[in-house]
Amino acid sequence: MSSKFKVLNIALVAILALGFFTLTTKADVTGNFGIHLLLVPQTTSSELSPLYIDFESELNLTYVVSGLSTTFHTHFGIAGVEDVILTSSATLGALDLTTQLVFARFACGSPNGANIGTGCYPTTNTDPSTIPFYSTLHFIKKRVTASVSLGGVTFSNLAVFEDVNAFGQNEGVVTQAGTLGLQSTAYAFGDQVSVTGQTPSGVGLSFSTALCLQNSPNVIKKHILAPNSVNPDCVATPKPDILFDRETVKITSVPIAPGVTASGTVDCVKVAACSLKTAFTFNTPSVPIPFTATFTFTDLTKLSFSGAQLVFNAGAGTLVVTISPTGTIAATEVSIDAVLNPDTNPAELIIDAAIVPGTGLTDATVTLAITRLGFTMSATAVFAGGPPAHFQFIEFAVDVPGGLVSFNARADFDLHGLELADIFISVSF
Questions:
Q1: Which residues, in sequence order, are bridge partners of residue 312?
Q2: Domain locations in the chain?
Q3: 10-residue block means of pLDDT along the chain (429 residues)?
Q4: Rounded distance between C-alpha atoms, residue 397 and residue 371, angstroms
Q5: How far is CA 397 from CA 342, 376, 417, in A?
Q6: Do 378 and 357 meet the contact criterion of CB atoms below 8 Å apart?
Q7: Pairing between strand 360-372 and 347-356?
Q8: What pTM did the predictor assign?
């Protein structure tokens, strides 16, 4: 029996043993069971079309025993078990511990991570995320986070051990015919140490050092596994091969004058690439609209100016003006989050738009949401592909939360017809 199966068997036996123990000690057991149905039409040339169907179930169980909380999560569908994630947390005096074990079979649908924002949902039958990367559950990663607060200073450490080849952007090629080509496993270790605190005057300080841990997420189907991943360059024999990846120093809430504060961030990646970002926030009676000015320098040794950003906040609106390195206006972003008819039958209107001088509107998103008796209905129109921006799709969604049963559904339509429909039903216990 291979080591990955042994690890999985041990983890599952531990969960079963913990479940039996909680029954005998009257532990708090909560969770939910959900059903997800994804429908994708094969063609939109007719009102009747064959459908690609991704039927998937989700189970979440949380056991709490004497301050020890353990959560078991899994997705399973037509192709079998898709993932298993075990998360445990406990507090030992001033020390907080959290561990996470991840096993999976499916990678993200898009090799370049383009589907990260949409949760890596498959959109076609030939989408790589519809074909398992592994025939059985594969050990992806383990994360251990430890933090302790002493005298107002918080010390934390994040340790990550993962297979850097276990993600769609790094390993294997899934063809339309379903051929799967996998590389060998490549395990590596990464670590990040952080120290945060505050001076008596309220100035915040934060220091973070990462070894073999880069600031980029890795993704499996339906999951973004934290905002960082182990550097593949740290795979070596014999282990470990420790390489410096990142150093970040942050200073916040520095008082400059009444109503004026400053903050700064120094971020060094791979030793040579160090950047400086400085922000000044003005919120005084003499300033009619509060705003924040942020200046970025990409090369700390030469202080090479790489641009600035002005953020104005006024009521429900936010205006972001981006200044290019040459001092000209590079782009303007407008965000509006307003409540229509707040006294009776209110509705929320959200508008996000980006405009580039000389070219016009590049992208925009408009959302109208209405809540009645606990039901939330919304419509979101997306314009992109600019300049000039043109209509991409519109999404209609309904959300019905409940103490026992929750329901959520959405449907996306483009100019040619239905792109996909999502239906979620969840039962809590």
A1: 291, 319
A2: 335-429
A3: 50 51 62 91 85 90 91 91 94 93 77 44 55 82 95 94 71 40 75 95 94 84 83 80 89 92 91 85 86 89 86 90 92 94 90 90 94 92 86 94 92 90 93
A4: 12
A5: 22, 8, 16
A6: no
A7: antiparallel
A8: 0.79
